[in-house]
Amino acid sequence: MMKTFSIGGIHPSDSKISKDCKIEVLPVPSKVFISVAQHLGAPATPVVKVGDQVKVGQVIAEPAGFISAYVHSSVSGTVKSVGPRKDLAGNNMTHIEIDVEGDEWIEEADLSDTLITAIPEDNKAILEKIKMCGVVGLGGATFPAHVKLCPPPGKKADCLILNGAECEPYLTSDYRIMLERSKEIVVGAAIMKQVLGGCPAVIGIEENKPEAIKAMTAAVAELQKTAKGYDGISVMTLKKKYPQGGEKQLIDAVMGRQVKSMGLPIDVGAVVQNVATSLAVYEAVQKNIPLITNVLTVTGDCLPLEKQHNYKFRIGMPLSYIAEVAGGVPAEAAKIISGGPMMGKAIANMDATTVKGSSSLLYLTAEQTVRGVESACIRCGKCAEACPMGLEPFLLNKYARNNMMDELEENAIQDCIECGCCLYSCPANIPLLDIIRLAKGDVIRIIRGRVQQGKK
Amino acid sequence: MDKLLVSPSPHLHTKTSTKSLMRDVVIALLPAVVVSVLFYGWSELLILGVSVASCVLLEYVITRYLLKKPCSVGDFSAVVTGILLALNLPSTTPWWIVFIGAVVAIGVAKMTFGGLGQNLFNPAIVGRVFLLISFPAQMTDWTRPQGFIGGGLDALSGATPLGLAKEGGVAAVEGLDYMDMLFYNIGGSAGELSAIALLIGFVYLLVRKVIRPYITLSILATVAVFSGIFWAIDPMTYTDPLFNLLTGGLLLGSIFMATDYVTSPMSNWGGVIFGVGIGIITMLIRYFGAYPEGVSFAILIMNSVVPLINKVCHAKKYGR
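YS: structure for the whole thing
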């Protein structure tokens, strides 16, 4: 029987309209604006100043803490400004503006297509490369990859899980790289697995992507035949269910283990990395190419098939520029999402630019996305049935509206992963997640405060 | 596209709504409605009409003019209550008694608690039990009116199988054909006529994922096991399990009334406790109580402990 996670989950229509659109390389615009906050954690500190000449792949901002990451220039040219600019939510963040001149890369970058299968032996050097190349998790959270690959003392990885679930509807970028860059992804997996001490690696893919399963299985088989260090890598077909790609859910599905509340995956011996992150690791370690590109899907039901695209973009490209190249924003679009429709962010500002973790420009029509009028809770329990963390959103909603913080903590609001299953399934259109998200922030602040007081 | 919509995730929503769920319940009730109208004719049609119309009208008037809240009639929940109330009455009930039942169901059991989602007790059952206590003669008048088909079937008119068993013991119901009961039951409230029609509705509700099976199945299993034990000990005094499953309001109650979202527990395990409780109370009343039938009372009694069950039973949480 096909595996999946054990609690809750929903089955939205997968709408992978753009799945057969090959990855196209976006032309470089005349100007890019590169944000210094492209990862989870502290925004990086700019190390270039106005007037500096930069090459493609050159460091332009350095990590500003343990959980932070390097940012590199995605173009060659002259730094025009370093200052605040609005991101896609409309908040100000430091961006580095670069005028594009030519396309001159750093010397060490290997831009050839040759597949390098021999894995370097020095794990320390590999980790250093991953860190220096600014690789972050590309599954959504953009957590710095090298931190995850260094388990804290006393913890050991039992399994590296590559997340190829792509359980969000509409998105097809991971699917495309699994078809077009399968071998590179497997090499990346082998590198990470070696760094983690040689644990097995499982590539989890949902059943609705049979071609990706075939391509990845073939890539693994071929590399196991022709090169060393590829034993213990396998592909696992997972039953289609959202949110399969959630880290905690994927660990449950693949390993049958559950991460404790407020715990980390490594506590149960799991390290989860997205397939796109694996590709970035390959490029960093084998090709010396820092993370300045990724693939994003331009899609939506209101776009004709010929305007659906999977684009390889460089960081710092304005979203409006990408929309223009793709054939313009459709008139019916009422909301544009960056990311999937379940967990992505609504774009408030199309002048915002791409970041490492950008995964889509998704056009939704008013009919699809405008919420219905809230009515009375009929206590159907569909929210609790859908919650993949086993929470009871109807109860949390009630407690949150009455500011009952102790009850919220007792009922594990802090475990909410904000997947949106509760709000999606509520027949009464109650904005469950909106309310739970706010209260969760409060409860986590209370818990943190208590922990700090305990330390004093 | 001058202005973009911005809101927190998720950006998609299921097509299932309160209205579509209630509409599904109405559809699931249709087989039972059709069978009852076919066999009980015009008088049943009148009861259904009066019941549904007065439930909807009362809900409209009360929300609109008394509570001054947005009108909730459009969600079909009053229609469901209306049909269920009608199916819970003998097919000879006078129209004004039906209307009183609707006043109690919608006015007292639903609206005084705050309307949809707030009521502690199932409105249709409160309406029926109120009528049963207030008008005992009319509520146990089981003469069968002339139906559109099957006019000659009223071999046992005047009493339900459960009533006969209560009066005359097992011997009184010995000649009953269970196949008849499966397809067009003998005597009783309108909705109790055909087990098959009710089961078709059950399957529809399960397929459409309107309800989960735990409550219904635990009630039926409890009734089967409870009566099975007593029957095995003394088959001369106690009726057999199949008889108990097919007679009375057990199927109607366990499929359509005990599974009412508002008045049943939220969790699966809570549903099982709830169902076992209903099964045991039903059988205690049938075997040892003053009334021949106890499903309505059993559901009402268990309705009252639902808040306690919800307090104790929670879903299994991830990683805890």
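YS: worth flagging: The interface with chain A takes residues 1, 4-14, 16-18, 20-21, 72, 75, 77, 115-118, 212, 261-262, 266-267, 314-320 of chain B (CB under 8 Å).
IM: good catch. Also Residues 49 and 111 of chain B are 21 Å apart (CA to CA).
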